[in-house]
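Suppose a colleague, Dr. K., hands you the sequence of a protein chain of 368 amino acids and asks what its three-dimensional shape might be. Before reaching for any lab equipment, you can write down a predicted structure in token form. Begin with the sequence itself:
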Amino acid sequence: MSNPSLLILPGDGIGPEVMAEVRKVIDWFGANRGLAFDVSEDLVGGAAYDAHGTPLTDETMEKAQEVDAVLLGAVGGPKYDVLDFSVKPERGLLRLRKEMDLFSNLRPAQCFDALADFSSLKRDVVAGLDIVIVRELTSGIYFGEPRGIINEGNERVGINTQRYTESEIARVARSAFELARRRGNKVCSMEKANVMESGILWRDVVTEIHQAEYADVELSHMYADAGAMQLCRWPKQFDVIVTDNLFGDLLSDAAAMLTGSLGMLPSASLGAPMANGRPKALYEPVHGSAPDIAGQGKANPIACVLSFAMALRYSFDQGDEATRLEAAVEKVLADGVRTADLLQADGEQPVSTSEMGDAIIKALDASL
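The predicted structure, expressed as tokens, is then:
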């Protein structure tokens, strides 16, 4: 059998630096755990625009459709702000999500014990936190029609349409329920059924899917604004949260800061199964391209490393090896190894991006 295939798109800013550390981890699993991958690399975002005049070429898009998973670093930077909207670096990422039909966005919010004091909330509120927000990614108000800015009388009117079909809600609900079965077996669905018809349909469809297919999973419903409040009040009450595109955008960013640093947060965007049974998949850190520190060896590679851990778990059915990698990251942090974004006390010395990667490899060696 051939090795599973990965397409690496380092992108812009700190993307190439953090992805270099992921390559070390990928090579380690090939050498030590019999998990060899066929890895190819290409351009996306500003890097692709600089080389080809477009943030994503058709050839790269075709590769992304063919591989078992895509790993992406980051896109964007101020030098591209003057470009036309159609060729901005972010359009490359959006094209990948749209054409791969990556409808289920998994955003974990996990607080490692060693970093519990980094959160703006009290330690007892966030220590041990391990939740996942499942955000519908390819429909809703960001894509609904009609949209635009029109003139009515003497003033302009901005229009965006919140639109969901039953099938769009059903497939992301199934994604959340399946995920919950692999975790704490509990799903909270969030919408605004009290004021939005799309929210009423969302609640109805999620309930129908639950009753028909996932009655073994505990299901609760919560208005999204109350959910935001509860995330700040006692986030550990949740396991899996499923919500629409707009609310998922807001709630996942709020949950991200419970953990203390964007440099720690991975994500997965999943689609329908391919012929080999693996889902279409794109894995990327939540942080941006951080152009202010690019090329300086200051970037934290952990979010990108943990994104590969998600690939091991969700694309390659290697949950034990994903746990091994996550435990190695936790061990490094517990040992006090810190990149600059994780420093608290004056006088602490940060490690470089590559030194953090080397520390993770050393912890993986110790796990054997």
